[in-house]
Amino acid sequence: MNARDMTTEGPAARRRAATRVKPVTLALQGGGAHGAFAWGVLDRLLEDGRISFEGVSATSAGAMNAAVLAHGLMRGGPAGARQALADFWRDIADTSARFSPFRQLPWFGGANGHTLDKSPFYLMTDMLLRLFSPYQFNPFNFNPLRDVLARHVDFAALREHGEMRLFLCATNVETGKVRIFPREEICIDAVLASACLPFLFQAVEIDGVPYWDGGYVGNPAIYPLIYECATRDVVIVHINPIVRRGVPKTAAEILNRINEVSFNSSLMREMRAIAFVTSLIERGKLAEGEMKRMLIHSIRSDETMTALGVSSKLNADWGFLSELRERGREQADAWLEEAFDAIGERSSVDIHADFL
Length: 356
Description:
Elements: H1 11-18, E1 22-28, H2 35-48, E2 51-59, H3 61-98, H4 120-131, H5 134-137, H6 144-152, H7 155-161, E3 165-172, E4 178-182, H8 188-194, E5 204-206, E6 209-213, H9 223-228, E7 233-237, H10 251-282, E8 295-299, H11 302-306, H12 318-339, H13 351-355
Helix pairs in contact: 2-3, 2-12, 3-6, 3-7
């Protein structure tokens, strides 16, 4: 992808230019390599040009997307953000290839395998992760994501000159409380803390406090967008499926569904609170100005995500990431067609049906 690919011309572009740009906030979930789906969503929204992002709350892979998005916007506007995200995910794939010597072996799952769950290497690795902690198998705390982030985000410039509000979620290991890092405090360690899966990486310490993946307590947290941003519209980009039909039977399937439920639980609780406040306003129990009435939108594809095995969250092959990007673009395109007119007017999802 290059800058020319990102130039939108012709009558459609002129019609979009004549449309009032609507501000929204974004809530980006985490999910490892599945974060490439959110990359596709962001790419399509940036391409469309009718939406601006006032703020982003994000967790794990969503935090990486958010940091790269903010940096790209700061450097080059929407086109710069699209290029920055494309370059970042390409680097993720290239780095993964360098550190995954078994990826091309047929019994590992193949270069474009969507799921590696039954490959001998994956099963062996999965077993070892249950027996040994990252303090044992990775005593030097090597994390290639640190170098990738350093290549794509100038954190000092972002803290000083960034305009979009950022809120990255991490979990305080000792207290179990959510920690929100605003843009003014964001650094490489804050992003890595938000994405620190405790079975893979040692806890990330910031000012002497250890942090794990933010998905355990906020995937992502919605409340910073309510209190710190002016717009009422929140667009949630889902990575973890809410609905997965059928009862999981294998140990891997059970653990995967437990992970999905737990990583969606904080979002569900916040949606319940938003629905409660909305109900009070609608019934006249609260004046409209006393509490902020939020408008909720959702971009998700449970069908896409439930078709993927849990191990595919570790599959950073470029072909797989590119396919997820396309699924994200398609879903965002459908959402723009169906829900753009709702922005600023009403929620485009049924909160009770989808979340409660």
